[in-house]
Amino acid sequence: MTLSTGSHRTEPSTTADERSMLDGWLDYHRSTLAWKCEGLSDGQLRTTPLLPSALSLLGLVRHMAEVERYWFREIMLGEDLPELYSTREDPDGDFHFGDGDTWAEAEQVWQTEVELARQAAAGRSLDLVSKAESHHRGEVFSLRWIYTHMIEEYARHNGHADLLREHLDGATGE
Predict the structure, then answer these.
(1) The dihedral sign for the CA sequence 79, 66, 110, 158
(2) What is the pLDDT of residues 118-168, one digit of tens each?
(3) Rounded to whole angstroms, what are the CA distances from 30 to 27, 64, 91, 100, 134?
(4) What's the mean per-residue pLDDT of the chain?
(5) Which 8-state DSSP code applies to residue 86?
(6) Which of 5, 48, 79, 117 has its CA 20 to 30 A from that of 165?
(7) CA-to-CA distance for 163 and 121, rounded, in angstroms?
(8) What is the pLDDT of residue 52?
(9) Are 133 and 118 in contact (CB under 8 A)?
(10) Which residues, including other chains, have CB under 8 Å from residue 45's CB and lie 6 or more apart?
(11) What is the span of the domain harbouring residue 138?
(12) Residue 136 is part of a domain; what is its CATH number?
């Protein structure tokens, strides 16, 4: 079974300026993750078929909501925000969910964080340096670096999503 080509995915321009190229690739990868989740039930989205890994499509979407929030708002803008899913007690909380956690809620939170990330980056120079340091690395980052990292993060996790989707229902697609 091949996934339909998701009309909502736009191929990034091959000749755009740097900012348009970065926006294009990031949006392409965001759309790819959404596409990999299309048409599945809540049960399928929360399934962890690659044991012993806790990876699930629902967990990947929750993880990417946290990643969007962390890099664009907490690091770039220096906002002090509460945790979404992961905590000090449960650093992998984005992949641990209860019966009440749904795809609808996770998708809404993710799409909200994507929109807030777009707003955080809008009109800012790619050379702008973050207001906060990374909790893990203790460094500041340019907006350019954050874009590049986000593209890498999505690309890596979209590879995971490919494997999960194929295992769940046999569907494949680039």
Answers:
(1) positive
(2) 999 999 999 999 998 887 778 899 999 999 999 999 999 999 999 999 999
(3) 5, 9, 23, 25, 23
(4) 93
(5) -
(6) 117
(7) 31
(8) 93
(9) no
(10) 37, 56, 57, 58, 61, 103
(11) 46-169
(12) 1.20.120.450
Q: Is residue 3 part of a domain?
A: no
Bridge partners for 142 per DSSP: 129
Answering whether pTM is above 0.90, one says yes
Tokens 């990031």 label which residue? 26
Rounded distance between C-alpha atoms, residue 157 and residue 155, angstroms: 6
Residue in the structure block whose two tokens are 């120079």: 125
| CA gap 152, 150 in Å, rounded | 5
In a domain, 114, yes or no: yes
SS3 state of residue 9: coil
Give the total number of structural domains in the chain: 1
In a domain, 13, yes or no: no
DSSP state of 11: P
CB atoms within 10 A of CB 35: 21
